[in-house]
Amino acid sequence: MENRWRDEEAEQFVEKYGARWGLDVALRTYSSRLLGSEEALVLHGGGNTSVKGTHTNILGESVPAIFVKASGFDMGTIEPEGHPGLDLASLRKLRALADLDDQQMMDEFRARLFNPRAATPSLETLVHAFLPPKFIDHTHADAILALTNQTGGEKLIREVLGDEVIVLPYIRPGFKLAKAVAAAYEASPQARGMVWMKHGMVTWGQTAQQAYSTMIELVSRAEDSVAKRATNPLRVAVQTPLEAASKRVVQVAPILRGLLAEPSGDPDRPYRRAILLPLTTREILDFVNSDRGRELALTPPLTSDHLIRTKGLPLWVDAPHYDDPAKLREQLSKAIQDYSAQYDAYVARHAANIPVGVAPFDSQPQVVLMPGLGALCAGKDVQAARIARDITAHTLAVKSRVAAMGSYEGLSEEHLFEMEYHSFQQAKLGASEEPALAREVALVTGAAGAIGSAICEGLLEQGCHVAATDLAEDALKSLVDTLRTRYGERALGVPLDVTDPASVVQAFAAVIETWGGIDLVVVNAGIAMVAPLAELSLESFRKLERVNVEGTLLVISEAGRHFKTQGTGGDIVLVSTKNVFAPGAKFGAYSATKAAAHQLARIASLELAELGVRVNMVSPDAVFAHGGRKSGLWAEVGPDRMRARGLDEKGLEEYYRQRNLLKAAVTARHVANAVLFFATRQTPTTGATLPVDGGLPDATPR
Ligand code: ZN
Questions:
Q1: 430 pLDDT exceeds 60?
Q2: pLDDT-wise least confident of 232-236, 377-381, 645-649
Q3: How confident is the model at residue 624 (pLDDT cuts 50, 70, 90)?
Q4: How far is the CA of 196 from the centre of ligand 1 (A)?
Q5: 178 CA → ligand 1 middle, Å
Q6: How far is CA 144 from CA 9, 129, 147, 193, 402, in A?
Q7: How far is the centre of ligand 1, averaged over its atoms, from the C-alpha of 578 (Å)?
Q8: Which of 146, 82, 148, 147 is nearest to 115 (CA)?
Q9: What is the mean pLDDT of the chain?
Q10: Is the pLDDT of residue 423 over 80?
Q11: Where are the domains of the chain?
């Protein structure tokens, strides 16, 4: 492992943060980021770091302080606020206590924060406070876990790292671990670091660089030793090609996602869904296809810190029936039921040890392993699913290394349970209110236009994962770039030609391969043209027909098939038009083809209701732009209507405003709000049309 410390970079951190936060916290931020950016050391919020220094209080007095990483912060991107300061002297006095439970300990931490509004410090804060050196680094390094998590691991780690490190048996993080660590350090003050069996590594130093460099040096030695000893690799009889695994993901993910959705008891929104991310690398495929894959996968996790992200055990599906969809569904359903029953039994066995105020987790698996496919990892959103996926990738890699050296040995069930049902761990997951469309996935067609882009934004604001699709690739790319800077990886761009059946199938598959399934389809792609019937060529008419009618049919049909496979209902919203009810002269091709699309959506509401799918329409009057995005309708209609009425751009907008009852200017955002009304299922409604037109009596649906 490379030592990435660079004096110039350290100096930059001091320049950036030193004046406000002090030299110690500036350097602490730098080396924490170095540790956090190394996946083989810490993953997503794992590990913690601290520095001891001073704090100047409001009276100008200098008080001994410790700055400890707060729970839930990711070291790879940590800012100085991620290391809140506490009163060191009074924390150290706690060592005199015989015991301290977690809740009390957390209260004691909060009471000793210099800033009462700061984030709650790590569960391992007292380890940091009781150890004398200035800088303390703690990681869950893969190579250390590979050595400690095996039969005879303690002997092995002593052999590899010698007397320079102290080795402690597994002790659950909390007050007892902190006391044991302090006592062990005092017995061997010359040691350079400490290994905690089945947990991780601690190093220290008087400078940030020293603590960090010791970590890298010791972990590198462990890595070399693992590489040398791994002489009996897993054997793979049949390799699955990556492409075959991807195809199976598209086949399996919607079924699995449907089966993993939890009933909510709310008839309007009957399921709490999950986002499913696939893990289909060569390494993972070889693991699940190997002779010892099953046995190894069903061993306890590497470290108890990973539990709340992945649960203690994955679900393993033996010999999946990929070539028989009905059998496959039955097989997955049974496997999930068995898993849930086993999880419930595990919780029941330890019910007496659930701390007050801690609620049991759901009993669904978070990681599903399948030979010939790899893994599918679930989370409440793409971020949570990604954490589960990254932990799974590291876990399986380390387990296969251990198996190549000896035999894997994880934590006991008691230890796992006490960590999983730990108030601190649950705090990490955050119990904050979820936005209305978190856990859901939408596909929007014609997304790069004015109305489409506003719909994407509206859905993203409600927590939805949004696949923006369009034929116009440049416009789509610029939209998705903008959306990703605001909403991160919940925005995805997928090229789609709605008139091409293969393109529709591919676009659905691309979204399923990214997030596991789709719950809402917004049929928005459409084109317009201006011509009186007498001058309308058949070719032009057919062009509109292909996009507005056939495109709608293809997208609705594919959505219906997908919703059936997923089995948890769904929503379709068609962006219709006021022209369906009040057609305009010279607008025959548009009005007629949109009327056909509208009728298709109404039929879909009849046919798909039994699947729990709702199909509704919004019918706006003219919308010409959203921000910088002009609508296709504007390009087509604007110039003609301006010419016909002798108006300019502003004048035309004013004309449309004056023709409705409310004298309202209809915006793309209004249309998005109407889509959201249906998408969030405010009323038990299907087959309905919501006008977004400021009130046009001749266009009121009857
Ligand atoms: Zn730890």
A1: no
A2: 645-649
A3: confident
A4: 9
A5: 12
A6: 28, 24, 5, 12, 11
A7: 60
A8: 82
A9: 94
A10: no
A11: 7-229, 242-427, 441-631+666-690
CATH assignment of 242-427, given 1.20.1070, 3.40.225, 2.30.30, 1.10.357?
Answer: 3.40.225
Indicate if the alpha-carbon torsion angle 489, 423, 306, 329 is positive or negative. negative
> Looking at residue 648, what is its pLDDT?
83
Q: Which residues lie near ion ligand 1 (Cβ < 5 Å)?
A: 200
199 CA from centroid of ligand 1 (Å) = 6
Global confidence as pTM: 0.92
Are 7-229 and 242-427 the same fold in CATH?
Answer: yes
Cα(434) to centroid(ligand 1), Å: 28
**pLDDT value of residue 429:** 59
Largest pairwise CA distance in the chain:
99
Q: What is the pLDDT of residue 637?
A: 76
User: Could you read off the pLDDT of 655-702 as tens digits, one per residue?
Assistant: 889 999 999 999 999 999 999 999 999 999 999 999 999 999 898 876
CA dist list (Å): 284 to 375, 426, 488, 666: 8, 29, 26, 52
Centroid of ligand 1 to alpha carbon of 650 (angstroms): 63
**Ligand 1 centroid to 122 CA: how many Å?**
9
Place of tokens 């509109």: 544
Q: Please answer whether residues 670 and 620 qualify as being in contact, where contact means their C-beta atoms are separated by less than 8 angstroms.
A: yes
Tokens 């940590």 belong to 78
Distance 143 CA to ligand 1 centre (A): 15
Is the distance from CB of 297 to CB of 397 less than 8 angstroms? no
In this prediction, residues 277-306 reach a mean pLDDT of 93
Q: Does domain 441-631+666-690 have CATH number 3.40.50.720?
A: yes
Strand, helix or coil for residue 296: helix
Distance 221 CA to ligand 1 centre (A): 20
